[in-house]
Automatic annotation (TrEMBL), chain A:
Keywords, in A-Z order: ATP synthesis, Cell membrane, CF(0), Hydrogen ion transport, Ion transport, Membrane, Transmembrane, Transmembrane helix, Transport
PANTHER family reported in the protein's UniProt record: ATP SYNTHASE SUBUNIT A
Entry function: Key component of the proton channel; it plays a direct role in the translocation of protons across the membrane.
Name of encoding gene: atpB
Main location: membrane
Keyword Ion transport: yes
Membrane spanning stretches: 47-65, 103-123, 135-153, 174-193, 199-221, 228-248, 254-273
Organism from which the protein derives: Streptomonospora mangrovi
InterPro entries: ATP_synth_F0_asu, ATP_synth_F0_asu_bact/mt, F0_ATP_A_sf
Compartment(s) of residence: Cell membrane; Membrane
NCBIfam families in alphabetical order: ATP_synt_6_or_A
Protein name as it appears in the record: ATP synthase subunit a
UniProtKB/TrEMBL annotation, chain B:
Transmembrane segment boundaries: 21-42, 48-70
Top-level division of the source organism's lineage: Bacteria
Keyword annotations of the record: Membrane, Transmembrane, Transmembrane helix
Record protein name field: AtpZ/AtpI family protein
Amino acid sequence: MHSAAQEEGCHIFNDFGCGFQAPTTELFFPAPWVEFGLPGTSGITKYLLVLIVATLVSMAFWYFTTRNPKVVPTRAQSVAELFVAFVRDQITRNTMGKAGDKYIPLMVTLFIFIFTMNVMGLIPGLQLPVTSNLAFPAVLALFIYLLWNAVGIRRHGVGAHFKARMVPAGVPGYLLPVVVPIEAISNFVIRPFTHAVRLFAVMFAGHLLLAVFAAAGFYMFNPMSPMGPVLGGVSVLYSGIALFGFLVFTVFELFIMAVQAYVFVLLASVYIGEAMEGAH
Amino acid sequence: MNDRPGTGEAPKSPEADGMTLFSYLLAGPLVFGGAGWLADWLLGLSTVFLPIGVLLGMAGAIYLIVVPYVRS
């Protein structure tokens, strides 16, 4: 986590008058290592590296836990089975019933992949959650959007699928002109948008919060203060408080990362389940 | 909304319901507020149909949220 404060060696209780500079959203726009010069592209940045690491880690997880499956599971295998059972019982069975069992592989993979991308924000040296860039959640949400539409169209046909998603059942005819546009925009425009933005915004804000705590802890650490040893001691105390906050929020952030991965998969599963169900 | 295949009356999760309410409340005022703004612009008026549209959209959204609960 780099910040302006770190680069300038700027600390509290100094005698050359430099204040705290909070980390900015520059954190999320790393300088590209390779630029293609094409409009709309950002070149090869740290995001791509962290994405590759996250992909390899989640692939390695499945490789090492399931390469030699046994009826009585080994420790590693039972961890993988725990994830599968969790996704099946808590997510797909609740939203799609038994018919949703064929989506378990997709949902488990999605869960592990998103969680790994989120956790990259806490790995020292990388410290950048891939999902804090809107492009990555947006692609995943777009994929789910195309999938649930395809599922609905295949199962019910084009007309019935779109009717089920636009015309709510049990609404008197004279209210349909009001209700249908709302339902349509809500399902086909706002839903995929919020699906992506929710994950992105939470990871973005959480990472920025951690960066502020880290930068504040660094800024307030000045035991050699030119203003005397007392203020030097106070600065160490302040820094300790910021560090404690940083640690507490790191644990909290880890929890949030898991919850956001869960919610993304849950919503994906609800959308596919509704499309399978057709008219409601 | 309650009878998902195979699960009987399994309730949807609060997170998913929350997102549905949120997108209704966003979509309602957006659609009819947008239509009202367009009507104002076409008729050369200033903010006559826009507030009406926003209110209508909000009412529609609340109706869509309340109805499934009243029915069940």
